[in-house]
Specification:
heterodimer; A: 364 residues; alpha+beta; Rossmann fold; OB fold (Dihydrolipoamide Acetyltransferase, E2P); 2 domains; six-stranded mixed sheet; 36% strand; B: 586 residues; MetI-like fold; 21 helices; 1% strand; ABC-type ferric iron transporter activity (chain A)
C-alpha cells in the first residue's frame, strides 16, 4: 500500500488560464515535501486540489493509496472525508471560537487522550495561557501555532501547509520555523508545504519540488536542488547570480575565470555559465595562491557594501583572463563574502570561483 | 522527478459509487434553490401568462381609454418623486458630510427618521391637516373672515403634486443614505486637489463630488422609484390614477383579471428599467470609489447666514416628514385612543405581529438557504436562478397580489377538482384568502431583503473559513451550523428586523390577500382613513410608525459607529485575502 499523497498528471485551468500543466508530485509519509516556486506558479492550486477544495479537472489524486480525485470520472471526494489537514496562509482561525474550541473543532470524539494531546500541544507551543482567548487577541505567531495545532488535532494522514510562515515578521520567522519543524518531525505526519522562500524550503524540506508556470521543473533533495540545478531558473531561485554568456567551443565556454567545460552542449551552440555570488572567493592579496581545481583571475574593486553578516562587492574583471582592462571588454562581478571585507575602491584583488557553485546551461 | 513509489492500487472509489463534494448528481442545495426560485417566480409567471393568454379586446379597450393616462401619471409621479428625493437626499447628504453648522452631528442620523413613516400614513395626516375641513384652512377662513372656498386659493393636497410631495418627504432618506456613504468614501484629497486647482466649493461639488457619487445616487433614486411604483395607499387615497390604481380599478370595477394582468405586465416593463438603472449604479459604484483610507473630513465652516440656511434645509424635511405627522398622530391618539382600542386594536396588532413574524422567519430561512447555496457554488446556473429569485423587491405589491391570487385560485381549484373526482369531497379554498396567502406574498416580496443581508454578511467571511472547516471534517451543513450561522448572527437579526418592519407597513398585498374580516394595523388605518376617521385610527398608525423607527435606529447606530476616519471594529479573524465583492441587493 502506497502511503502519503500522490498527484498524477494534474492539469487545471481557471477559465482560459491554465495554471497547472501536467504536474505529478509525491509527498511520502513521514517526510516533509516542499513545493517551491514564485507566486502564481500554481503551487497553492495544487494544494487546494489535494485538499479537495478544488475539483480535479484532469489527472488523479491518491491519498494513502486510495483514489480521492479523478478528472476522467469526475470523482472528487469531499474535503471532510479525506483525512487531510490544511493550514491556510491567513490561518483562518474561527473568530467566534476560542483557542481551545478552534483546536478541538475537527476532533470527532473528544476522548481524554485527545484532550491531553491538546493540552500538551498548547503547552509545547507556548500558548497554554491563551486556551480561552479568542483569535483576535493573539499575535501572528500565536495564531500560526494555534492554526498548526488545529490542523494536526484530528490526526490527519497528511498535512498541507500553505505559506505557513509568510504572515510572520522576519525576526520571528526563524524561531517559529524551527519549532514547527521539530513539532512536525515528532508527529511523523506526511507534510506538503508550499513556499516561495528557498531558504525556508532548504531548511524544512526532505524533498523539494520546484515549480514554474504550472510545471514541475525539478524534484529532489535540498542538496540536489542547490548543487545540481537543472536549469538557470532553479539555480537563480537561491539568489541572483553572475551570468556569463557565449558560444561553446571545443566543449568549453570562456568566462573571466577561464574556460569551463560544458560537455552536454555541442560546439557552436549558445550557452551560459552561472556563478553564485557566494561561490566567488576574493583575496586582497593580488597574488594569492588558490586551490588547483579553481580558476582564478585578477580584478579591481568598484564598490563595497556592508550587509551585516556578509559583505557585497562589485569587482571589475576582464572579460577573458589575461587581457588588459578596456571599457567594452570588462565585467562587473557581484560577490558575497561572509563577515566584514571592505577594501578601498580600486584595490587589486584575486578572485576565483568554487567549481561546485558554477553551473552551465544551454541558452534558449 | 524521483519516483520511489510504485503505482497505486486500484481506486476504492469508482465513478458509480456515491461521491462527495461538488459531484453529487442529486444536490440538496441546487434542488432547493430551484424549488424556492420557482415558488417565488410563480406569481410573476402567472401574471405574464394570464396577460398573454387573454383575448385582445380588453387590451384594445384599455389602450383606447386609460393606458396612456395611467402611463403618463405613473411616469410623472416617478419622475417627480425621483427628482424631489434626488435634490433633498443629495443636498442634505452633502451638507451634513462636508459642511460644519450647528446640529450637523444630530442631522447625520436624524435625516433618516422620516423613513419610519409609511407614505400612506403621511398622506392621511396631511390630508387631515390641509383639506377644506382641516385645521389649516379653517384657521385661514377664521383669520381672514372667508366663508367658503371660492373666496381664496388653497392648493389641493389630494393631487399628483400632493402625492409627489408626500412620497418625497418619506423616501428621500434612501438617496440621503447612499449619497452620504458615497461622499464619505470619496477621498478628501480629491476634493482638496480640486480646491487647489482653483475650484470653489460649489464648483468642486458639481464637478467632482457629485459625478463621483453618481452611481450611488442612481441606486438610491432607483430604489425610491421602486417604492413609488409599489405604493398603493397614497395613490388610492389621493385618487391619483397610476398603474397600481388602474390595476385595482380594472380588476375589481371592470371585473377583468386579464386586463389587470395586462396592466401589471406594463408595470413590469417599468420595473425592468428600474432594475437596469440600479444594476448600472451598483456596477459603477465599485469603480468610483477613490479612497484607500478615509481621513476625518475637515468640513467647510459655514458663516452664520449660510449655517442658518443649512440648518433649515435639514430641519424642514425632518419636521415635515416626521415631526408633524408624529405630533398630529400623537395628539389624536391621546384624545381618541379609547375609540381605537374599542375597534379591536389588540387583535389587529396581534394579526400584524403574527404575519410579520411568520414572514420574517420564513424569509430568513430561505434567505440563508439561497445565500449559502450560492456560496457553495456547486452549479454555475444556480447564480442566475438565485438572482432571479431575489428580484421580488422590485415587483410592485399590486402585481404580486394579482399573481398570487390567480395562482392560489388555480391551485385551490385543481386540488378541489382532483379531490372531488377521486375522493368525492370538496376541499374548497385551501390557500386563497388565508394567512398563508398573505405570508406567501410577503415572502415573495421581501425575500431579497433577507437574502441580500445574509449574502453580504457571508461575503465578509473569507472562503478559507469554509476550507478550514471542511478539511477539519465538517460537511457543508455542519459548516453552516458551526461556522457561518454563529458568525452571521448580527446580519440575520438585522435582516429579520427589516423584513418584519416592512411587513408591518405593507398595504397592497395585505388588502388583497388577507382572509375575510381579517384586519392588520395597516389595513385598519387604511380603512379608517379612507372613511375620514383618521383620529380614531391614530393609535394604530402611530404603532406602525413606532415599528418603523426600529430599523432607523439600527441604521443610525451604524452611522454613528462608522464615521469617516474611524474604522469599524470588526470582530473577525485577520482577513488578508479579500473575498470577491458580490453584488448585493438592498
Amino acid at each position: 500500500m502506497t502511503t502519503g499523497l500522490m498527484m498524477e498528471r494534474i492539469r487545471h485551468a481557471f477559465g482560459a488560464t491554465e495554471v497547472l500543466k501536467d504536474v505529478s508530485i509525491v509527498a511520502e509519509a513521514g517526510k516533509l515535501t516542499c513545493l517551491l516556486g514564485p507566486s502564481g506558479c500554481g503551487k497553492t492550486t495544487l494544494l487546494r486540489l489535494a485538499a479537495g477544495l478544488e475539483k480535479v479537472q484532469d489527472g488523479q489524486i491518491y491519498l494513502q493509496g486510495r483514489m480521492v480525485g479523478d478528472g476522467k470520472t469526475g470523482l472528487c471526494l469531499a474535503p471532510e472525508k479525506r483525512g487531510i489537514g490544511l493550514m491556510f496562509q491567513d490561518y483562518a482561525l474561527f473568530p467566534h471560537l476560542n483557542v481551545y474550541e478552534n483546536i478541538a473543532f475537527g476532533i470527532r470524539n473528544l476522548t481524554p487522550e485527545r484532550r491531553t494531546w491538546i493540552d500538551a500541544g498548547l503547552e509545547r507551543m507556548g500558548v497554554a495561557k491563551h486556551r480561552n482567548s479568542y483569535p483576535h487577541v493573539l499575535s501572528g505567531g500565536q495564531q500560526q501555532r494555534v492554526a498548526l495545532l488545529r490542523a494536526l488535532a484530528p490526526e490527519p494522514e497528511i498535512l498541507l501547509l500553505d505559506e505557513p510562515f509568510s504572515g510572520l515578521d522576519v525576526t520571528r520567522r526563524a524561531q517559529v520555523r524551527e519549532d514547527t519543524l521539530n513539532f512536525l518531525k515528532e508527529c511523523g505526519v506526511a507534510v506538503l508545504m508550499v513556499t516561495h522562500d528557498p531558504e525556508e524550503a532548504m531548511f524544512m524540506a526532505d524533498h523539494i519540488v520546484v515549480m514554474k508556470s504550472g510545471k514541475v521543473v525539478q524534484a529532489g533533495t535540498p542538496v540536489q536542488t542547490y548543487f545540481h540545478p537543472v536549469s538557470a531558473f532553479v539555480a537563480e531561485l537561491f539568489g541572483a547570480m553572475n551570468h556569463f554568456e557565449g558560444v561553446v567551443e571545443k566543449g568549453q565556454l570562456e568566462t573571466p575565470f577561464g574556460a569551463f567545460p560544458i560537455p552536454s552542449i555541442p560546439d557552436g551552440e549558445p550557452a551560459q555559465v552561472l556563478v553564485r555570488m557566494e561561490g566567488i572567493n576574493v583575496s586582497l592579496d593580488a597574488h594569492h595562491t588558490v586551490p588547483s581545481t579553481c580558476r582564478t583571475t585578477t580584478g579591481h574593486v568598484v564598490d563595497t557594501y556592508l550587509l551585516g553578516r556578509s559583505s557585497h562587492l562589485h569587482i571589475r574583471v576582464p572579460r577573458t583572463p589575461g587581457q588588459g582592462l578596456s571599457d567594452d571588454n570588462e565585467i562587473i562581478l557581484h560577490v558575497r563574502v561572509p563577515g566584514v571585507m571592505k577594501p578601498e575602491p580600486g584595490a587589486t584583488v584575486t578572485v576565483w570561483a568554487d567549481p561546485k557553485q558554477v553551473f552551465a546551461f544551454a541558452l534558449s | 522527478m524521483t519516483r520511489t513509489l510504485q503505482h497505486p492500487e486500484p481506486p476504492l472509489y469508482t465513478a458509480n459509487e456515491p461521491k462527495g463534494f461538488k459531484t453529487l448528481k442529486f444536490d440538496v442545495w441546487a434542488f432547493g434553490t430551484v424549488v424556492i426560485a420557482a415558488l417565488i417566480a410563480m406569481p410573476i409567471f402567472w401574471v405574464v401568462g394570464l396577460a398573454l393568454n387573454s383575448s385582445g379586446d380588453i387590451w384594445a379597450h384599455l389602450v383606447d381609454t386609460v393606458l396612456a393616462r395611467l402611463a403618463l401619471t405613473t411616469v410623472l409621479l416617478m419622475a417627480g418623486v425621483g427628482f424631489g428625493t434626488f435634490v433633498l437626499g443629495t443636498g442634505t447628504a452633502w451638507l451634513v458630510t462636508m459642511c460644519r453648522f450647528p446640529g450637523k452631528r444630530i442631522f447625520e442620523w436624524a435625516m433618516l427618521i422620516p423613513m419610519a413613516v409609511p407614505a400612506y400614513v403621511i398622506a392621511y395626516v396631511y390630508t387631515d391637516l390641509l383639506e377644506y375641513s382641516g385645521p389649516v384652512q379653517g384657521l385661514i377662513r377664521e383669520t381672514f373672515g372667508f366663508t367658503n372656498g371660492s373666496q381664496y386659493w388653497f392648493f389641493e393636497i389630494r393631487s399628483l403634486g400632493g402625492a409627489i410631495t408626500m412620497m418625497t418627504l418619506v423616501l428621500y432618506p434612501y438617496v440621503y443614505l447612499l449619497a452620504r456613504a458615497a461622499f464619505l468614501e470619496q477621498s478628501i484629497c480629491v476634493l482638496e486637489a480640486s480646491r487647489t486647482l482653483g475650484k470653489g466649493p460649489w464648483e468642486s461639488f458639481f464637478k467632482v463630488a457629485l459625478p463621483l457619487a453618481r452611481p450611488s445616487i442612481a441606486v438610491g433614486v432607483s430604489l425610491v422609484m421602486m417604492e413609488t411604483l409599489n405604493d398603493f395607499g397614497t395613490v388610492d387615497f389621493f385618487a391619483v390614477a397610476t398603474f397600481t390604481a388602474g390595476i385595482f380599478d380594472v380588476w375589481l370595477n371592470m371585473n377583468s383579471p386579464s386586463g389587470a394582468a395586462q396592466l401589471a405586465c406594463m408595470m413590469l416593463l417599468f420595473v425592468i428599467v428600474l432594475i437596469a438603472l440600479e444594476r448600472y449604479g451598483r456596477r459603477k459604484q465599485k469603480f468610483h470609489n477613490t479612497t484607500t483610507h478615509n481621513r476625518a473630513l475637515p468640513g467647510f465652516k459655514l458663516s452664520a447666514p449660510w449655517a442658518a440656511l443649512a440648518f433649515l434645509a435639514c430641519a424642514v424635511p425632518v419636521a415635515l416628514g416626521f415631526g408633524v405627522p408624529a405630533w398630529v398622530l400623537g395628539s389624536y391618539a391621546l384624545n381618541f385612543y379609547e375609540e381605537t382600542l374599542a375597534a379591536d386594536f389588540w387583535t389587529f396588532t396581534f394579526n400584524s405581529l403574527l404575519l410579520a413574524g411568520l414572514a420574517a422567519a420564513i424569509t430568513i430561512v430561505l434567505g440563508v438557504f439561497l445565500a449559502y447555496s450560492l456560496r457553495l457554488g456547486q452549479v454555475r446556473w444556480i447564480n442566475g436562478v438565485t438572482r432571479f429569485a431575489a428580484l421580488g423587491y422590485a415587483v410592485p405589491g399590486a402585481v404580486l397580489a394579482i399573481g398570487i391570487l390567480m395562482y392560489l385560485g388555480w391551485l385551490d381549484n385543481t386540488i378541489d377538482g382532483w379531490a372531488r373526482g377521486h375522493i368525492g369531497i370538496s376541499t374548497g379554498l385551501i390557500f386563497s384568502g388565508t394567512v398563508i396567502a398573505v405570508t406567501f406574498g410577503y415572502v415573495v416580496r421581501f425575500l431579497s431583503l433577507s437574502f441580500g443581508s445574509v449574502e453580504s454578511g457571508l461575503a465578509k467571511i473569507t472562503a478559507n473559513m469554509d476550507g478550514a472547516a471542511r478539511t477539519l471534517g465538517a460537511g457543508p451543513m455542519s459548516t453552516l451550523k458551526r461556522i457561518h450561522l454563529p458568525m452571521l448572527k448580527g446580519s440575520i437579526m438585522t435582516a429579520a428586523l427589516l423584513v418584519f418592519v416592512d411587513c408591518m407597513k405593507e398595504l397592497p398585498m395585505t388588502v388583497v390577500l388577507r382572509p375575510f374580516n381579517f384586519e392588520t394595523l395597516a389595513t385598519f388605518v387604511h380603512q379608517y382613513a379612507s372613511d375620514e376617521l383618521l383620529p380614531e385610527a391614530a393609535l394604530a398608525a402611530l404603532a406602525i410608525v413606532a415599528a418603523g423607527i426600529i430599523p432607523v435606529v439600527l441604521l443610525s447606530i451604524t452611522i454613528a459607529h462608522a464615521r469617516a476616519g474611524h474604522t469599524q471594529h470588526v470582530d473577525a479573524a485577520p482577513q488578508h485575502i479579500p473575498t470577491p465583492v458580490q453584488e448585493v441587493s438592498p
